[in-house]
Input
Amino acid sequence: TTPGTLADGSITAYAFGLDVSEYRGQQTVSHGGAFVGYRAELLRFPTQHFSVAVLCNRADAAPEMLARKVADIFLDDVLTAPDAATTDTPAALPKLSLDEQALQLYTGDFWEPDEAFAAEVRLIDGKLWAVHSPTRRNELRPVAPNQFRMLGVPARVLVDYSVEEGRVVEMRRTINAQPRGVFTPFTRRQVTADELSAYTGDFYSSELDTAYRLFEKDGLLWFELDDEGPQELTAMFDETFENPDYGAFTFQRADDGQVSGFVLQSGRVRNLVFNRR
Output
């Protein structure tokens, strides 16, 4: 249970395989697990000598949240009052009304370099939304100054903005009271069809023995796998493109300036190399 220390001296919440943190004023030690179709969580409150184990046989289950809901009942007399980070019922969230002009400040595109993915925030019908794809989005409800709670997800997700001189300089995400990402604003790169043609071709991973076929159509960049239909790649910045389901594709160029391959970051996958062939 000794927290790890990074090279820069900062202390993490990760302690030799265990997560050492706090929930509603009490120390916790926990660890979650996930495999195909299964989810699990073991949550301990050392001071109270109390533990909760949750085993789920559905991939869309939320064992972290379920474990803490059990603790809410059994440890109600020692836990501090719930706040926006620990409340499950949207109706119980703090009330904070912001007009469209105020909400507009928080919109934009944000990049998280450690997990290599983009967060898109848009104002739609007078509400703030986290847009994951053209068909998936979740409302961000204001609960405190510069703080929002994401609704409709099986976890307690808080989004905090840092604002300086009237503009957002950073966005931080917390999931079930655990820090999960620091995002910085960026402006999406505008790419012409001619520029996209440089990224087309077959790209092969010897590690996976798998090839991606990239092609340009209707001014957009697409890729195909052997057993999958076309998937769009959206330009982010520099040489990085993204697909919300497959991850971030950062292209590399040879000395002659030609695209030679890309590196894929996707969830737990890091630096997976694909070479052009």
